[in-house]
Amino acid sequence: MQTGTLSKIQTRLAGGEAAEAFARDLLAGLSSTPRSISPKYFYDAPGSLLFDRICELPEYYPTRVELGLLSGHAREIARQVGPRAEIVEFGAGSLRKVRLLLDAMDRPVRYLPIDISGEHLGAAAQVLRRDYPGLHVQPLVADYTRHMLLPALGEDAGQRVGFFPGSTIGNFTPAEALHFLQMAAQVLRGGALLLGADLVKDPAVLHAAYNDTQGVTAAFNLNLLVRANRELGCNFDLAQFAHSAFYNAPLQRIEMHLVSRRRQQVRVCGRCFEFAEGETLHTENSYKFTLDGLQALARQAGFTPGPAWTDPQKLFSLHWLNAPT
Ligand code: AVJ
């Protein structure tokens, strides 16, 4: 069998399993109080395009500021990374970010992007192979929130450096974030982690970033219902749910919800759910950090914090975290 055929079958199987997991999680989330669903379901193909548009919005500073930190401190970061290093990226993220890292590095040997979805990974890997002929690109389809086994570091290789940009860590609860960092400390033993984390700041700046005037973030949030209608045959009436995003200061997080505009019933996988007027489906938490708070969390997971880079306005941070030996 041709490898193309095999990967198509695997994709189809994964699609079926993915739809089943979405159905299971949505039913469980609608049955719990308060109602919630994991933000990982935002990222179908239309959702990923909407997220790309969010990253270009004037109000959404994280992507722009993080790219600025990566390019502005590229030499210092490359010095920390050292020669012939291997990059392990958690999530098949934006190629733009890892390129900034690779371009500054001294002879990077291998790039291991890890993602739960194989589709995104394969395409990204091909592009990087073409542009970095000396680089060994080895994508891994895995759930990086669980413990996993990575191929051994090459004998001639420098250190293994994890890369987790975008403040994706902010989607985890504090307990999940600690668990992720503990897992990363194991996998990166003897190396380090380069982590991007969004910072606590004026709530008005945060509010604007998640309530853009063009309504892209609202469309991104509502796309979850579009996806449920298409993939699971639900009948969410999009006009009857509103985007809501606000800063929960005591919990240091942006919360996104879909708010029912009136009392209504929705059919989900053959079951009927009633929403009261104003009742919400909690779709995302995006935790914000202080520099000290992030470093304390990293220490708790076994890392020894090195340099942290931030912009003059202290909007976003990049952390060098040395893994245990
Ligand atoms: C990809 C999780 C970092 O929390 O800012 C953007 C997702 N949600 N706008 C974030 C998101 C709404 C983003 N992360």
Short description:
The chain has 325 residues and is α/β, with parallel strands linked by helices. It has ten helices and 14 strands.
Give structural notes.
- It comes from Rhodoferax sediminis.
- Its EC number is 2.1.1.44.
- This protein is of the alpha/beta class and 325 residues long.
- The model is unreliable at 1-14 (pLDDT under 50).
- The termini are far apart.
- The chain has 2 domains: 19-58 and 215-287, no CATH class; 61-201 and 290-322, 3-Layer(aba) Sandwich (Rossmann fold), CATH 3.40.50.
- The protein is globular, with a radius of gyration of 20 Å.
- Helices cover 41% and strands 24% of the residues.
- The chain has 10 helices and 14 strands.
- The strands form 3 sheets. Strands 2, 3, 4, 5, 6, 7, 13 and 14 form an 8-stranded mixed sheet that branches. A 4-stranded mixed sheet has the order 1-12-9-8.
- It binds N,N,N-trimethyl-histidine.
- Residues 54, 62, 166-168, 170-171, 210, 217, 284, 286 line the site of N,N,N-trimethyl-histidine (AVJ).
Quick one: overall form? globular
Radius of gyration: 20 Å
Please summarize the sheet with the most strands: 8 strands, mixed
Count of helical stretches: 10
- Which kinds of small molecule does this entry bind, naming each only once? N,N,N-trimethyl-histidine
Q: What name goes with the CATH superfamily of the largest domain?
A: Vaccinia Virus protein VP39
Overall SS class: alpha/beta
